[in-house]
Design goal:
- The complex is a heterodimer.
- By secondary structure, chain A is α/β, with parallel strands linked by helices.
- Chain A is built from 15 helices and 36 strands.
- In chain A, strands 20-19-21-22-28-27-26-24 form an 8-stranded mixed beta sheet, with helices on both faces.
- In chain A, helix 8 links the parallel strand 19 and strand 20.
- Chain A is elongated and about 130 Å long.
- The two termini of chain A are 42 Å apart.
- Chain B is of the alpha/beta class.
- Chain B has 9 helices and 12 strands.
- In chain B, helix 6 links the parallel strand 8 and strand 9.
- In chain B, helix 5 runs parallel beside helix 6 and helix 6 runs parallel beside helix 8.
- The two termini of chain B are 22 Å apart.
- The chains are: A alpha/beta, B alpha/beta.
- Chains A and B meet through strand 3 and helix 3 of A and strand 10, strand 11 and helix 8 of B.
- Strand 3 of chain A pairs parallel with strand 10 of chain B.
């Protein structure tokens, strides 16, 4: 019996106590003296005196009655032997046939150290209390990380094996998919053979981190099962700092200056001065700044990449931090420093230097010729009809200008490259370009959602002397052009090109500039892992190439297309891994996977697919840098890191679990920090009873009758 | 002039205890102020004239009665002087008895004392007997919600018998208005006699009573206030709970006497002081009479005190 948060050893006495409150009240009224009726001539003075004393005596009588009732009730409750502290819904020592599933959260947050022990250590201890040998007990243990891992497929009476599994378990650098674990637990409980009088119990031992448990639903658990939530979280959330993301922004090319960024989560109550050291190969970069409490802050610095191209891997780590979770103080990092970009200019126009659209583009892409003997950006002109897969695969950026009618093969190749991360700039000038783009969109399928459809211009309404009506000044490339754009844009005039009309499902924000006839001028939209940019302009029928805007505009568009195809964050541990390798990696044969991680068990497999080599694993492995090598040369690298969500150790409100998320199940919540039920409250109740009686005496002395 | 005791065999009143009153026959009920009487008597009259007891001489003033000139003095001195005598008259006493419900209070512990009304009946009967025995006139007014009965003062034995019978037959009324009764008595009693008010003065408006007493005093009547108090009125009874019932449609009051005793006693003492205060300030002779004291003893003390 639960009353006022207490359980009672003899509940009947507690009930008696509640009833006994009425006893003094009844006695008070039953023993109230029956007044003697007497005639009195001076009743006026009696009435006056009574009126004067009435309120005072009423208060005294009420207090006396209250104290007496309290004293009687307290005595009864003392006899009921109250047990302070929450009584768990599941009694591990209760006899009978029991089917018990113990779900242990072994996500990374369970490794958080507090008071010199990890939450998982406490979970292990707590689990042991539910795994005491007992006849009639059949149990199973499920470890809940990114994927639920039951020790047995069904409940077993081999309690010793479960013990051993719990002892051997360690927290995984993964999130906990709590819902998947509950689904599994529900399945095991439902499939367990039920006997007469057998009980179904689910014990969940976790720190109930909010990020893992905020959206669970207990409905997969059988309705007649009781659910005991055992929290091993500390009452006060431990302070934690973590590197949530590390990456570089910009064109990651050899020797180029880029912005190195580290997102730091400060999950403490105070601002912290943070210093991050990023080791990339033999180079170390430092980021520092102040992180306000309870938020994620991005620290950044402009750094110059190494002069040589290649895959650089290393580790970012917090300097001088001491917090609850050490695993998120470091994060593997991989950066591919690309060589100077090679622009594949696909055009049918002549390569001889003369005023042509492709010439203007070539000059805009590489404005200055490199000095002899030095590496630099290059433009490789290619005839679309003679396109080689390897040649175009080496290109950093695909630029199409007056390509004519593209073959299906070429369209397929281009779509594959773009979907796998390559950028493509299509300068649309002729009606045939509209067909090419439409076919490209069809091949790209769901990976491409064009905001507009380009169509040949209507012969009745020739496009002539168009000007720029509007452009997205807050987005690349226009945000990089500063005051140049509004100064020059008014003088620009465009003719020919393609008409366009809006498409359903496309993102209007991808249209970055529009003409005066409302047709799109510049569109940049994602396509798979890459980006497609369409500049709707016949450069020869426009004064754009002659304007000071042309070179910076083309450079910024190219920069955006190149930048996006570069930096990527780490893959979270434990999550399914599906990664297409870059085209230059070649076939899967001869490739091998190497890891810097300590655990090299499941590094996945490489397979040849129609669109390239696919790296696949059921679950990403331990944190570290994974490299795909052909021979000794790394051709691809990937960082696998703990999920950033694990750094925030904030726990979910227990009431949410036991009410809103309980789905009508019997859910009890207990904290490992709670004291076991104590049986010493009866003494205090007796003391309180004595206090009531003494107070009554004092009251009667102070207000005598 | 020798006094003749009334025929005691003819007294029908049960409150008349002649045998006991014989012990008081040597005492006289006297007025302290000059009064107006109908006949010659032993009491100082407000008139000064040709009575028996010489007091002084005064020079004759023209216009005075020539018969009052002392011719012998005129012969000796050659100047006319008038002889002054102290005039004595009989007493015209009216007893105003309170017949309100509260006068029925007899207590509940010492029932043998009887009610305040009974006490007053004994006292008034005895007083009327003594007054008539000393050849004075006695009248009676019964007061409840105004004057119920009034007999003007007279001295015949028949009158006194009737008066005593009336005293015997007094019944109380639950409604009392002593001030109104005094007012009506004032209107109906002529002359400057003596008024004896016997009451417990448990009235709502003491100030009105005070005004009426002042009215009598303004007429130069002598007023004696006999404040009747039952001993059980002075102190509430012991016991755990009582339901006190008012005697003049006052309703009920439940209480534990212990809780209110102290306050009650203060309030009652204040009431006694208030009655005494208004009597004294109105120029009345005030005497508080406890029914615990036998009425003969009270009467004797009262008469002795008045005789001085």
């Amino acid at each position: 019996m639960l009353l006022l948060g207490m359980t009672f050893l003899h509940p009947w006495a507690a009930g008696l106590g509640v009833a006994a409150i009425a006893l003094p009240i009844a006695i008070h009224f039953l023993t109230k003296p029956r007044p003697v009726r007497v005639a009195l001539s001076t009743i006026r003075f009696v009435r006056e005196a009574v009126q004067e004393k009435k309120s005072r005596h009423r208060l005294r009588d009420f207090l006396v009655l209250l104290l007496r009732a309290a004293a009687v009730a307290l005595i009864c409750w003392a006899f009921a032997r109250p047990m302070t502290g929450a009584k768990p819904m599941i009694d591990p020592a209760a006899p009978g046939t029991v089917v018990r599933v113990i779900l242990i959260d072994d996500s990374l947050s369970m490794a958080a150290v507090s008071n010199a022990t990890t939450a998982f250590d406490r979970a292990r201890t707590s689990a042991a209390t539910y795994l005491r040998y007992q006849s009639g007990l059949r149990a199973d243990v499920i470890f809940a990380a990114a994927r639920p891992m039951p020790v047995f497929d069904k409940v077993s009476s081999n309690i010793a094996a479960l013990h051993d599994a719990v002892e051997a378990a360690v927290p995984q650098p993964q999130r906990a998919d709590a819902q998947a674990a509950l689904n599994r637990a529900g399945g095991i409980l439902a499939s367990a053979p039920q006997g007469n009088g057998s009980r179904m119990e689910l014990v969940i031992i976790s720190n109930f981190q909010r990020n893992n448990w905020s959206s669970v639903d207990f409905s997969p658990i059988p309705k007649d099962a009781v659910i005991q939530l055992e929290s091993v979280a500390q009452e006060k959330q431990p302070d934690n700092l973590g590197i949530l993301r590390i990456g570089a922004k910009g064109r990651l090319e050899q020797g180029r200056e880029v912005r190195l960024e580290a997102e730091i989560g400060n999950y403490s109550d105070a601002s912290r001065d943070i210093q991050v050291e990023v080791d990339l190969g033999s180079v170390a970069y430092h980021l520092q700044g102040t992180c306000p409490p309870r938020v994620a802050t991005t620290l950044s610095a402009l750094v110059t990449l190494p002069a040589s191209a290649g895959w650089f891997s290393g580790e970012a780590k917090l300097i001088g931090s001491s917090d609850a979770l050490a695993a998120d103080d470091t994060r593997p990092v991989v950066v591919e420093v690309r060589p100077f970009p090679v622009y594949a200019l696909l055009t049918r126009e002549s390569s001889t230097p003369h005023a042509s659209s492709s010439y203007f583009l070539e000059r805009a892409l590489v404005p200055a010729k490199a000095l002899p003997g030095t590496a630099s950006e290059t433009v490789e002109r290619m005839d679309p009809s003679l396109l080689g897969r390897d040649a175009v695969g080496r290109a950093s950026l695909l630029v199409l200008d007056h390509p004519g009618v593209l073959s299906d093969e070429t369209i397929n190749l281009l779509a594959t490259l773009v979907r796998r991360g390559r950028g493509m700039l299509y300068v649309a000038a002729e009606p045939v370009d509209a067909q090419n783009l439409a076919r490209f969109a069809r091949v790209a399928g769901e990976d491409l959602k064009m905001p507009v459809e380009f169509v040949p211009p209507d012969a009745a309404q020739p496009r002539h002397d168009l000007f720029l009506l509007e452009w997205r000044h807050d987005q690349e490339p226009f945000d990089q052009l500063g005051e140049l754009m509004p100064t020059v844009a008014g003088d620009l005039r465009f003719s020919r090109g393609l008409s366009s009309h809006r498409l359903e499902g496309g993102l209007a924000d991808d249209v970055l500039a529009s003409y005066s006839d409302r047709s799109a001028c510049l569109v940049i939209t994602p396509c798979g892992a890459g980006n497609l940019a369409v500049l709707n302009a016949d450069l020869m029928a426009s004064n754009l190439p002659a304007s000071p805007l042309f070179v910076p505009l083309v450079e910024e568009v190219a920069g955006r297309l190149l930048a996006v195809s570069d930096s990527s964050d780490a893959v979270p541990c434990g999550e399914p891994l599906t990664q297409y390798l870059p085209a230059e990696c070649g076939a899967a044969s001869g490739l091998k996977i190497e890891s810097s991680a300590e655990d090299k068990n499941d590094m996945g497999t490489l397979s040849d697919e129609s669109t390239g080599v696919l790296w696949q694993a059921d679950a990403a492995g331990a944190p570290g840098v994974y490299q795909i090598k052909r021979g000794d040369k790394p051709v691809y690298a990937l960082a696998i890191a703990p999920p950033a969500s694990q750094s925030d150790l904030q726990t979910i409100d227990p009431a949410t679990l036991t009410t809103r998320l309980a789905a009508g199940r019997h859910v009890a919540y207990a904290s490992a920090g709670d004291l076991p039920p104590a049986d010493d409250a009866w003494a205090w109740l007796l003391v309180a009873c004595a206090g009531c009686l003494i107070s009554e005496v004092v009251l009667l002395k102070l207000f005598p009758t | 002039m020798p006094t003749k005791a009334p025929d005691i065999d003819q007294r029908p009143s049960r409150f008349l205890q002649i045998g006991s009153l014989q012990a008081l026959s040597h005492l006289r009920f006297v007025a302290r102020h000059r009064i107006e009487g109908a006949y010659a008597g032993r009491h100082l009259s407000r008139q000064r004239g040709g009575s028996s007891e010489f007091v002084d001489y005064r020079e004759y003033a023209p216009g005075e009665d020539l018969r009052r000139i002392d011719w012998k003095v005129l012969g000796r001195t050659g100047k006319p002087y008038v002889r002054l005598y102290r005039d004595e008259t009989n007493l015209r006493c009216t007893m105003l008895l309170d017949a309100s419900g509260s006068m029925q209070f007899a207590g509940h512990e010492r029932r043998e004392l009887g009610s305040k009304l009974q006490y007053v009946q004994y006292l008034a009967t005895a007083l009327s007997y003594l007054i008539s025995a000393q050849r004075d006139q006695v009248g009676l007014a019964i007061a409840s919600d105004g004057i119920v009965d009034l007999i003007p003062p007279a001295g015949t034995s028949t009158h006194v018998q009737r008066l005593q019978k009336m005293i015997e037959d007094i019944t109380t009324s639950p409604v009392t208005n002593l001030a109104l009764a005094l007012r009506q008595a004032f209107d109906r009693i002529t002359g400057r006699g003596l008024l004896v008010v016997m009451s417990d003065f448990l009235v709502d408006d003491l100030d009105a009573v005070y005004s009426m007493l002042r009215l009598f005093r303004h007429r130069r009547s002598e007023v004696i206030v006999l404040h009747i108090v039952h001993p059980e009125e002075e102190r509430l009874p012991d016991g755990r709970a009582y339901r006190f019932e008012g005697m003049e449609n006052d309703g009920l009051a439940d209480c534990s006497p212990a809780q209110v005793r102290e306050t009650y006693e203060k309030l009652f003492a204040a009431h006694l002081s208030a009655v005494r205060g208004i009597a004294m300030s109105a120029g009345c002779d005030y005497r508080r009479i406890s029914t615990a004291v036998p009425y003969l003893q009270t009467l004797m003390g009262f008469l002795v005190e008045r005789e001085g």
